[in-house]
Write a structure and sequence with these properties.
Blueprint: H1 3-23, H2 36-41, E1 45-46, E2 69-70, E3 77-80, H3 86-97, E4 101-106, E5 119-122, H4 128-142, E6 147-150, H5 165-193, E7 196-201, H6 214-234, E8 239-246, H7 268-281, H8 288-300, E9 307-310, H9 313-324, H10 327-338
Parallel strand pairs: 3-4, 3-6, 4-5, 6-7, 7-8, 8-9
Antiparallel strand pairs: 1-2
Helix pairs in contact: 3-8, 4-5, 5-6
C-alpha cells in the first residue's frame, strides 16, 4: 500500500462527507419527536445547508441544518444521451430504480446495454434529424419531457500540434454542437410545460488547459459557457439549465479517445510521460454510481445550482488553486505534475 492509499484509508470518511456536501444537499438530522420541525418533515423532502465548492477541503463537516421543505420528488420523464455505458448507463440505472421513466440513447442501441432497466433509443448527436426524431419519440410515448441529461461525448488525446483540424472539428461537433442540438429539440416542449431540467455533463478538465488534451479541455470549457448563456435565456420559461463536472470515474472513455495517427518525435517524450501519469491515476477513479446519486438529487431540486463539481481530493483542490494563483504559477505547477 503506497502513501496515497494510506492517506485515503485514514481520511476517506471525512473527504467523502465533505465532497458529498459540496456536490449537493446533505442528509438532514431528524428533528426530535414531537417538535414542530418534526411535523413539517413528515411526508416532505428536507433541504440542508449547501456549502460552495471553493471551501477548503480541510474543514470538518458541519451537521446538516434545517432550512425548510420542498415538494416530495415526483416521477419524471428523463432523456439521457450516451446511455449505453459509463456515466450515462449508471445514471439511467439509478434513475430507473428510483421510479423515473428513463429513455437512454445510443448510436446503435442493444437491449443488453441497459440491462432491460430503461428504454434505449437510437440517436446520433451529430445528426440533427436523428436528435429531433429521438426527442419526438420520447414525447410521443410519455407526453412530456422533464429532464434532459447531455452525457454523450468523445475524448481526445495528443499534442495540440499533431491534431488535425478535421479531428478537432469532429470532437467539437460531438461535445459542443451535440448538446446544442439536443437542447434545441427539447426546449420547445419544456417551454410549453413551463418547467424542465437541462443538464450538460462537462468535466473538471474544462477548468484547465490540460496538456495533451487541449481540445478536450476546450470543448468542455465551451460547453460550460454555452450552458451559462442558455441558462440566462431559458430561466424566464421555467427551465433550469446547469452543468455537472465529473472528475475521474471508472468508465471506458479512455479506450474511445480520438488520437492522431502520428505523434511527432519532438512531442513524443512529453506525450508518453503524460499519458503514463494519466493512466496510473485511473487506480483512484470512482464508481460511476456515485455520480449518478448526485444526479438523482439534482433533478429533485427545485432550485439547482448553476454548476456541480463532482470530484475528489486534488482534482477539486486544483480548481480552487486555479482561481487564486497567478496564471503562470499555476501553469508551472501543472507542467511539473506531468513532467
Amino acid at each position: 500500500m503506497d502513501v496515497r492509499d494510506g492517506l485515503s484509508t485514514t481520511l476517506r470518511p471525512w473527504i467523502d462527507k465533505w465532497h458529498y456536501l459540496c456536490a449537493g444537499a446533505s442528509p438532514v438530522r431528524p428533528a426530535p419527536a414531537g417538535s414542530p420541525r418534526a411535523g413539517r418533515q413528515q411526508g416532505q423532502a428536507v433541504v440542508a445547508v449547501r456549502y460552495g465548492s471553493l471551501a477548503p477541503l480541510f474543514l470538518p463537516l458541519p451537521k446538516g441544518a434545517y432550512l425548510g421543505t420542498v415538494a416530495a420528488p415526483a416521477t419524471k420523464v428523463v432523456l439521457i444521451t450516451g446511455a449505453s455505458s459509463g456515466l450515462g448507463k449508471a445514471i439511467g440505472l439509478r434513475l430507473a430504480k428510483a421510479g423515473h421513466t428513463v429513455y437512454g440513447t445510443s448510436r446503435r442501441p442493444q437491449l443488453n446495454e441497459s440491462n432491460g432497466a430503461f428504454t434505449l433509443l437510437a440517436m446520433d448527436v451529430t445528426d440533427e434529424h436523428s436528435v429531433e426524431a429521438a426527442v419526438a419519440e420520447v414525447i410521443k410515448r410519455s407526453g412530456r419531457l422533464d429532464v434532459v441529461i447531455n452525457n454523450a461525448g468523445l475524448g481526445i488525446q495528443g499534442p495540440a500540434e499533431d491534431i488535425a483540424p478535421a479531428m478537432a472539428a469532429q470532437l467539437l461537433d460531438t461535445n459542443v454542437l451535440g448538446p446544442h442540438r439536443v437542447c434545441r429539440a427539447a426546449l420547445p416542449r419544456m417551454r410549453e410545460q413551463g418547467s424542465g431540467h437541462l443538464i450538460n455533463i462537462t468535466s473538471v478538465a474544462g477548468n484547465f488547459g490540460l496538456p495533451y488534451r487541449s481540445f478536450y479541455s476546450a470543448s468542455k470549457a465551451a460547453l460550460e459557457r454555452y450552458t451559462e448563456a442558455l441558462s440566462t435565456e431559458a430561466a424566464r420559461f421555467g427551465v433550469k439549465v446547469l452543468t455537472m463536472q465529473p472528475g475521474e470515474f471508472n468508465t471506458n472513455i479512455a479506450a474511445a479517445r480520438l488520437r492522431p495517427e502520428v505523434i511527432s518525435e519532438v512531442n513524443r517524450p512529453g506525450y508518453e510521460k503524460a499519458m503514463a501519469i494519466l493512466g496510473s491515476s485511473l487506480h483512484y477513479s470512482r464508481d460511476p454510481d456515485e455520480f449518478a446519486q448526485v444526479v438523482e438529487r439534482v433533478i429533485a431540486s427545485e432550485a439547482p445550482r448553476a454548476t456541480y463539481i463532482v470530484a475528489q481530493g486534488m482534482q477539486r483542490f486544483s480548481i480552487f488553486l486555479k482561481k487564486i494563483l497567478p496564471g503562470r504559477l499555476f501553469e508551472r505547477l501543472l507542467r511539473k505534475h506531468y513532467e
